[in-house]
Amino acid sequence: MKGAPALQAAQQLIRELSAAAPADDYDPARVASVLAGLEALAQSPEGSPPSSDAALQEVADALFGIAALDFSKRPQLRGDGSVLDAVIGCVNMLSEELAAYHLQRNAIEQELERRVESRTLELSMANAQLRHEIAERIRTEKALLESEAQLSQASKMEAMGKLSGGIAHDFNNLLSVIISYTVSLLEELPTPDPMREDLEQIRRAGMRASELTRQLLAFSRRQVMELKAVNLNELITNTTGLLHRLIGEDIELKLELEPQLGLVRVDPGQFVQVIMNLAVNSRDAMPQGGTLTLCTANVGPDGARPSRLESSAGPCVRLCTRDTGVGMDAATMARIFEPFFTTKGPGAGTGLGLSTVFGIVKQSSGTVHVQSEPGKGASFEIDLPRYQGTAQTEDPNSLSRERLGGTETILLTEDDDQVRHLAERILRNKGYEVLVAARPGEALELFRQYASSISLLVTDVVMPQMSGRVLAEQLRASCPGLKVLYMSGYTEDISLRHGVVESLVDFMAKPITPDVLLRRVREILDS
Ligand SMILES: Nc1ncnc2c1ncn2[C@@H]1O[C@H](COP(=O)(O)OP(=O)(O)OP(=O)(O)O)[C@@H](O)[C@H]1O
Ligand SMILES: [Mg+2]
């Protein structure tokens, strides 16, 4: 307040008055105390005028205190009221100064507030941005970790697939031989024979081994698929009888099926197996009973729910199973699709159920997603690309057993000695003429000699020198209508290494069994 003119004027006024008046004319103690009051105000830390009305009142009181002093010896100051005027003038000046100061301070405060506000806004925006970036970063890191985990999981599954597929492929040939020779022996034995039971045992074990091989091939995605446009609702409804028997009476089976469900292009037999495997697992997870729900839905761009397919551009169909069973912890969940991973005791589970599901779904261009927590049940969601064509009706296999033979001439080409002998024997037993070639070169030679009488080429796909497909093409060059039946252990043979197969009509999966070989041969000859 040192620089405030009103206060200085007041101090000046008092000094003048007290100097002009004799000491006994007034009370010096009072003057001193008023002056001290003004001085204190002048020394206020801000060095600004009194900032509140109360403070102004104090100054005014001090000034009027002076005016009330009796300067009796100075009539000129007393009678004409000039002391009072001076004091009032001082107070007015002071309050004007104060008003101006208030105005200025308000403006400064407002400006300050504005700045604080805008800075706060900037800060909070920067803060929000930062939080967003942090969240984004965490999300990216999590996604990265997830995709790394998925990648290592995928390459692990890929390696296991290769291994098991390779083994299964070789086993197929061996099993073809074991099963078929056993069946031939059984057919040749007289009905009551002590060896029958032993042979039956061999045949059953062989069939069981071939079932395991089939599951391994399914896992390694090398199973031959017979694709059809399928409505999964129908598939499920047709399977409920079997499902009820499978899961028993303590488990309630619920269906939540989307009435407008889109079609998928899958092997219906394989998908019955998928549903069965999932249902059996759910049953095992609910030993005290519970609920198993099967549901279907349209997902993807058109459907409400997002799809999990990587190529999520197109619409998909979802098949899911949900149970109220014991659930799984994260460690178990991470391994459930591995072949031979099981938490069930020895003899209780082979650990091939979900590997088969995984392989079939992958081979059908779909994805499987599992969700579970201990004690909270488990759900499996399978997303499959939606098929835009129309549904195919199952063609009833009308060929009866008696019609399985024939008298046509068949050119058989197979480099595996045992499989070749076996196929030859099966075909000859049913009346066919069989020309046998162990190499594509031999087949070409035989064809040159007997072209006119050959009705069908039955050939292996993978052979040294020349693939079965190339062989067929060469023969067809001179005889365009020649019918062909390919035999192979897995789809890779035909689809990847040996040209894409348009239809699987002319294809037969190994292991070959007499029934299937004869039926396929007859179908093709009659087509
Ligand atoms: N619905 C489920 N609830 C809880 N755990 C499950 C469920 N489905 C699978 N699992 C777990 O995953 C493991 C692997 O399942 P998978 O079907 O592959 O083999 P498995 O059932 O043990 O044997 P298999 O099916 O060959 O008889 C099971 O042992 C079980 O621990
Ligand atoms: Mg299982």
TrEMBL record:
SMART domains, per the entry: HATPase_c, HisKA, REC
A Pfam family of this chain: Response_reg
SUPFAM superfamilies: ATPase domain of HSP90 chaperone/DNA topoisomerase II/histidine kinase, CheY-like, Homodimeric domain of signal transducing histidine kinase
CDD domains per record: HisKA
Class of this enzyme: transferase
UniProt keyword terms in alphabetical order: Kinase, Phosphoprotein, Transferase
Database matches in InterPro entries: CheY-like_superfamily (IPR011006), HATPase_C_sf (IPR036890), HATPase_dom (IPR003594), His_kinase_dom (IPR005467), HisK_dim/P_dom (IPR003661), HisK_dim/P_sf (IPR036097), Sig_transdc_His_kin-like_C (IPR004358), Sig_transdc_resp-reg_receiver (IPR001789)
Positions of the Histidine kinase domain: 166-388
In-chain residues carrying the UniProt-annotated modification 4-aspartylphosphate: D460
Domain Response regulatory: from-to ranges: 409-525
Molecular function via GO: phosphorelay sensor kinase activity
Domain of life assignment: Bacteria
Catalysed reaction equations from the record: ATP + protein L-histidine = ADP + protein N-phospho-L-histidine
EC number(s) stated in the UniProt entry for this protein: 2.7.13.3
Protein name: histidine kinase
